[in-house]
Structure formats: C-alpha cells, structure tokens
Amino acid sequence: MTMDTQSMTSTTNKVLGYPLNAWYVAAWDHEVTRKPMARRIANRPLALYRTEDGRAVALADACWHRLAPLSMGKVMAGDEIQCPYHGIVYNSAGRCVSMPAQETINPSATVPSYPVVERYRYIWVWLGDPTLADPQLVPDMFQMDDPSWAGDGLTIPVNCNYQLVVDNLMDLTHEEFVHSSTIGQEELSESDFEVSHEGNTVTVARWMLNIDAPPFWLKNMRDKFPDFEGKVDRWQIIRFESPSTIRIDVGVAKAGTGAPEGDRSQGVNGYVMNTISPETDKTCHYFWAFMRNYRLDSQLITTQLRDGVSGVFKEDEDMLEAQQAAIDANPDYEFYNLNIDAGGMWVRRLIERQLAAEGRLVPTV
C-alpha cells in the first residue's frame, strides 16, 4: 500500500520510548565469550556470557544479594556464573545454585534471565514478556551470513535517543548536505520517492536515473568494472522493521541497462544493514554492516568498505549528537515535518502502536 504525505494525519512529534516486547541486538556474536561482559539495553543492565557448550546467556547484571554486577564475576564449569562480591553462583536460568557458608538456598535467590537468539552474527535479547519471545520475530537480516554476500561492520555508541538514528536512516536526502564529499549529490532531494507500509514494516524507495556517480559509488563501480565511465542509475530502497532494524538496498548500475526493471548485472549492489538498540533514553548502540554481492573473495574491499562507511557514519554521529543536545536545550519544541519525513512518520506510528499495546505510550522529551 502506498500513501502520500497529504493523506497522513499527524502523529506525535515527541521522541518516543522503546517497546520491550521486541528483539534487540545486545552484541556481535564474537563479543560474547566465556568471560562475562556488561551491556545496557533498553535501560536494563545485562551480563552476557557463553555456557560451556557455547550458548549465549543474558542475565540481569545485579546479584540478588547486594546488587553487585555479575558481569564482574566469573563463569564456572557448565553454565554457571559466580558473583564477584560474595561468591553466590547462578545458573543460566538465573536461579541461585550455591550460597557461601550455608547449605540452604533461599528460594527467592534469583535474577532475571532473558530470552536470547543468536542469528545473523548478532546476539539478540528480548526484555519484555518472555512468553511472547518468538524467535521467528527476529528481524530479517539474512545478508549478514548468506554466502552470496560479503562484508563487515562495527558498533557506534551514539549519545542520542535511538529514534533519531532511525529518523536519519529513513530519510537519506541528508546525504546531500552531511555527506557531500562521498555519497551525497543534488539528485537525492530532487528525485521522487515512494513510501509504502505493511504490517510492522515501512519501505521508502528512491531511484535516480542517468546521473553521475558520487565518489563512493564510482570507486565501487571501478572495483568491479575497472574501465567504467559514464552515467549511472542509482537506487536506495529503505526497509524498516519495527522497532529499530533497517536494511537499505543501495547501488548503481550503468545507465539504461535495466536496473529499475530488475537487471542489476551491469552494476554494484550493497546492503547497508542497521539495527539500533536503545541503551538509555538518550544513548544507543548502533550496530551496522555493509554487505556486497561482488568480489566476495576480496578482504581488501571488505576492509576498505567498512572503513569508508565508518567515516561516513561518523558524520552522522556528530550531527545526531548535536541534534540531541538541541532537543535537551529546547524541551518544549516539537518537530515539524516535510514531505521527506513521510517514511519516518509511518515508523513513529508503528512504534506508537507497539508502545500503546504495552501500555507504555509516554513521550520522552
């Protein structure tokens, strides 16, 4: 279903909270080891570790006894973790199995244990109602571990509300101004786009035909076609999956070779993979990767793309943190919406719907 901005009713312009009945990335798979690590997701401090058989575990990072961080403790044989303060031991379900200097274990000696799914090179956690934690609801990011795609990514700690990152990714016309030396060009704001939504997804599609390739994409074209010259057809197809995962199908192809109709053989195609986990109301963990379907065996290209995209995203980080500071300084100010905000407005509706279903629809200033 396609909608234009003229037919949309207004939604709240306040920065919203975050649903809890959802899967959020807590870490890259390689970050979680037998040594416990601490990470705060949706204002919940977590202790993450792996059991002896390699399974990832997420417990509340506070011992039942005196709230000492379990992430400062050590993993015992099997699946158990020991508090660093007084030696209380918990299993992976969060139940105490050993107390110092006494044989009787207090039955209330438990810490919350959160559902975990390891998929697409990430460790996902569910912080809401555990009976609703269906692994099939993990957002689709299949390019992350599909052998037809190659790439890598990083984590950016951003000092802003997670929704500001989502807004940034749903409207890429900012590239013309924030990323003018790499991926930005005038055609971004001059081109038409189409917004559609279905279920818990929103899609924004933009095509720019017969244009000059910006520096980033010209380099990628020449990585695959060393003698390339001329105009390109460029695309950006942004797909949001609530509450905070965005895959962006991006690329360029030699102009007039059929890319809009589905033939991308004369071009280069990438996916910018993004999933943003709120840390607090004003900070978040931004997990991203750039995946490509050409020159799969080249580690050099993988590293160059990761480092190049990282530099582009640093420009976003600076802008988003400045925006958060301005929001904090102007707590009564509400955003205004332009046509380019149509995708982001639908995203906010989906998040509002989830928060309302949880009884937690309270704007966060």
TrEMBL record:
Molecular-function GO terms, alphabetical: 2 iron, 2 sulfur cluster binding; metal ion binding; monooxygenase activity; oxidoreductase activity, acting on paired donors, with incorporation or reduction of molecular oxygen
Keywords: 2Fe-2S, Iron, Iron-sulfur, Metal-binding, Monooxygenase, Oxidoreductase
Keyword Transferase: no
Catalytic EC class: oxidoreductase
Listed Gene3D superfamilies: Naphthalene 1,2-dioxygenase Alpha Subunit, Chain A, domain 1 (3.90.380.10), Rieske [2Fe-2S] iron-sulphur domain (2.102.10.10)
Enzyme Commission identifier(s): 1.14.14.-
SUPFAM superfamilies assigned: Bet v1-like (SSF55961), ISP domain (SSF50022)
Domain Rieske: 23-125
Metal-binding among keywords: yes
Matching InterPro entries: Cholesterol_7-desaturase, Rieske_2Fe-2S, Rieske_2Fe-2S_sf, VanA_C_cat
Protein name: Toluene-4-sulfonate monooxygenase system iron-sulfur subunit TsaM1
Organism: Arthrobacter ulcerisalmonis
Phylogenetic placement of the source organism: Bacteria, Bacillati, Actinomycetota, Actinomycetes, Micrococcales
